[in-house]
Structure formats: structure tokens, C-alpha cells
Amino acid sequence: MRKTAILLSSFIVLIGLSNCSKESRQNVSPSAQQQAADPAPSLGGSAVYANFPETFESGTKGAYAIGNVSLPSGTWTLDDALIGNLANDRKNGSKSIRIENTGIVSMQFNVANGATQVSIKHAVYGTDASSTWQLWYSTNSGASWAQTGSTITTSSTTLNTATFPLSLTGNVRFEIKKLSGGRLNIDDFSIIDNSNNNNNPTQDDNLGMGNPSGAGTNSDNYLMVKAQYVLAYNNTKGMANWVSWHLSAAWLGTTPRCDCFTGDNSLPAGFFKATTSNYTNTGFDRGHMCPSADRNLNATDNAATFLMTNITPQAPNLNQLVWADLEDYCRSLATSGNELYIISGGYGTGGNGSNGGTTNTIAGGQINVPSHFWKVIVILPNGSNDVSRVTTSTRVIAVDMPNNQTVNGHPWGFYRTTVNAIESATGYDFLSNVSTTTQSVIEAQVDNGPTQ
After folding, report:
1. One of 122, 288, 372, 410 is an active-site residue; which one?
2. Does domain 44-192 have CATH number 3.40.190.10?
3. Which is the CATH superfamily of the domain at 222-442?
């Protein structure tokens, strides 16, 4: 893992950011006053506690009346809450917590090595109204409690992840307090400890695995290095050839999507600069390459993901469904003690959006509509000297998805392929910083690991 800042060549353009989000997956709403009162965020803990994430799969409680449930992680009290297994319960598996009114779900046990992060999946039950809730903690076995992070607003019927950075030592327990709105589903409650074993997640070199196209000063392969990601801009196509970023728990927080799509003023004079209106009524979403939810530690990071150089024309059923599911899976890996190096882009011409038919370009021909979108993901346990830790056993996920409205007929795992295949389709050289011996093995394999 590179612990030093990226050295920038004179041709690299740096960016100043304004307030600025993917068509619509994140839904958290933090408050600056609450955030200031929290324990100072750490860059992360060492490992997810044993028996966490708590999935609630083994528990049984069919009524909202207050009661205790024995689970693998320990005993939990559910007040105005139950363990739901209905079709309308949003869940990863067969069960999740369902909370109504102003219910509380509380740990009746401590974890002993503090916490540097808690992550919780949440969604609206059925077609209920949006709801708000908070995470609270106690360091004295429940004698007193304090809120951490900000009030979360849940409005999606798809499970999203709220991540709370912390810096707590010793015994600690947590509870969820629902404040308002319709019924709320909670799942996959995860706690990372604070045992400081030098494998804490950090923010690392976004181009750590190599420059796939040898991007530099060429207008159709123009390297742009930002603090949040690196990209190669193609002026002829009006979009990035690829975007590369590092993902770990150190990048994650509870800052909401800014939804502030903005032209990238760091593009050189004379380059085409896309605006959000270029996508209006085209039948294509403003699809993020580096996702908003991968950069929600603070407002500056989140705003950077809404620069139009990070945006591409994606079919809605790709952007909002299959592509988003893979993004969510990557974040679940990052909140489970891993760090990821991700490279993403599109190739070809001609996509099928919500307007029907095949569209080759938008914005009067200035933005290419790719026929396919691809992603290469290198997964490592948190650690240092990352490139040297990539071996022939390292998990690498490569996907190639059609840019159309029927792509959601299959889950994202269906679209797994080899890195070699994506290199053939794009002409790029991925993972070039890794030894060629290791590359020859991992780039020829199709991942067959879990998909959720």
C-alpha cells in the first residue's frame, strides 16, 4: 500500500471542487453539528469482530412487543421491532430486522476492543414511507448512551450501507434508534475493532495497479489525477476512457450524495466539457464510474464524483440495478476488512436506453454511448505494500456488461469474464505494476467467488 502522496507530473491537472451525485442510490443525511460532537474518526480498525456481521438469520421474533433474541453475536433487545422474513422485508438472505414507529434495537453485550467503524444495511419495508434513524453507543455497559454519526434517512427499497467512522477503545455496545416514518429494515450489522494491529485501512494510490493506457498529454488519452480517483479523458468521445480508484473503509462515511453534477473546469482550454443537461431526455443515466457512495467520508470527496469527467451514459437498468449491485458488493468487501483497487470504463459504440432503439452518441455527437461497460477489481486484505502482496491466489473480479435495458435479466456475477478478455476488447494493459508472472495467472482466470 503506498502511504505517500502521488507525485504529479507537470501536465497533470489538479481540481478545485464545489458542492456536488449517481442517478440515485445513496440516501443518508448527516448533520454537521452532530458530526462535530462525534468521537474523532479513525482511519479504521483491524478486523471485523467474530460472529459479525450479524445477519439476523438465526433469530426468531415474530411480534413487535419488546423482547430479547439470542443471536450468534450475542443477545439483542428488540423493542417495537421483530425479525422479518416476508417478501416485503428487504434482506440479504432470508431474514432482517423490521422496526416500526420509534423502535429500538439494542445490543445487550459489549465488544471488548472498541470500534473504528460500524456499517449497517438499511432499506424501506415494502412500500412504506421514508424513515429516519440514528446509531448510538455506550462505553459503560448501557448505563448511558451517545449518538455517533448523523441522522440517517432511509428512502430506498434496495439495501444500502450506512458507514459510521469511530475511534472508541475498550468495551462498547451499540443500538439503533428509529425516529420517524414508515417501517425500516436493518441487516448485516458489522463492527470493526480497534486493536491497532497495523492493518488499519488507509487511503492509498488510486493508480496503484498501473496506468492501463499509458495516459499522458494526448487529448484522447489525457491523464487527470484527482485526490479521489484518476482518469484518462478522451476528448473525441467526450468521456473518460477509464477511471481508477482505491476503496477501503478509510474512504467511507455518512456524508450524503450531493447530486451536484458539474462540468470539470480542470479540462484544458479547447477540450469538450460535458454538462448535466447533455444527458436530459436522452434515455441514459448520468452513470458514475467512481461511485458517489465510494467517496462519502466528506463533502469534498463526494462532490468530486459528480464532476462530468467521471460520468458516462449508462442505460438505466444497468446503472441503477446490476452495476449498482456490484458497487454495493465492493463496498461490503471494504467494510469487511479488505481494500480494493478498481478500474472501470466503457468500450464500443451503441447503447440501448429507456427511449428504445440504439443510440450511438448524445450531446449532438460529442459524447460517445458505449456498447459495453467493464470493471476490473483487485481485492486484498487490509495491509501495506499492496502491489507486492498481489499473488496468483489474489481474487480479481472482471466484468463486461452490455449497455442496454435487458442487462438486469441476469445478476452481476453472470457477466464475469477474464482480465485478458477486457484487455482484448479495450487495448489496455491492466495491473501493469504487478509482476508479469503473477499477471499471466490472475488475468486468465474467471472469478467464481461469492457475489453478495
Report:
1. 288
2. no
3. Extracellular Endonuclease, subunit A (3.40.570.10)
Among this protein's residues, is 288 annotated catalytic? Answer: yes
At which residue does the C-alpha cell 462540468 appear?
A: 263
* CA distances in angstroms from 442 to 1, 271, 286, 352, listed in the order given: 19, 37, 32, 32
Kindly report, as residue ranges, where domains of CATH 2.60.120.260 are found in the chain. Answer: 44-192
The answer for residues whose C-beta is within 8 angstroms of residue 91's C-beta and 6 or more apart is 84, 85, 159, 185, 187
Each residue's pLDDT, cut to its tens digit, for the chain (452 residues) gives: 433 333 333 333 333 333 333 343 333 333 322 332 333 333 333 578 989 999 999 999 999 999 999 999 999 999 999 999 999 999 999 999 999 999 999 999 999 999 988 999 999 999 999 999 999 999 999 999 999 988 999 999 999 999 998 889 899 999 999 999 999 999 999 998 887 555 678 899 999 999 999 999 999 999 999 999 999 999 999 999 999 999 999 999 988 999 999 999 999 999 999 999 999 999 999 999 999 999 999 999 999 999 999 999 999 999 999 999 999 999 999 998 899 999 999 999 999 999 999 999 999 999 999 999 999 999 999 988 899 999 999 999 999 999 999 999 999 999 999 999 999 999 999 999 999 999 999 999 999 999 98
Written as nine digits, the cell of 216 is: 499522458
